[in-house]
Design brief:
Blueprint: H1 3-23, H2 26-30, E1 33-41, E2 46-49, H3 51-61, E3 66-81, E4 84-97, E5 102-117, E6 120-137
Parallel strand pairs: 1-6
Antiparallel strand pairs: 1-2, 3-4, 4-5, 5-6
Amino acid sequence: MSRLEDIEAIKQLKHKYLRCLDCKNWDEMSACFTDDAVTSYSGGQFCFEGKDKIIDFLKDVMQNTLLTMHQGFHPEVEITGENTAKGSWAFHDYLIELNSNTSIRGYGYYHDEYEKVGGQWKIKSTGYKRVFEESWERNDVPSMKVNEHMFENI
């Protein structure tokens, strides 16, 4: 596989990770990680070792009452070896907590390491640090409401 094909495969992997996060597709997301993957979310506030612990954490915090939108863009991917790479991604996220009727919006950078396992790129390490995060009470805007979401009947 050429360097450009590797870089494109890594981009697809990161987008799959973000889609699975928002759609809560935990089995599919698990396939994105190496078995010994590590995380450092929120600037190191939430660190986990092993894909099972990572997925367990995400399942726990990403309940169906938490609606999320994660967008990753401006990838800077560097192939560092035959089966290794690293990358940096700008991201924007938007969260709605239905039970408390609050929202969070933020922006920051993911820093990842990747490993090719069995011919497939996987996330070996991922974490992010925010540039900013803001939150508000959605009740402060009387007309603001969620009209529909994909987890309503779950």
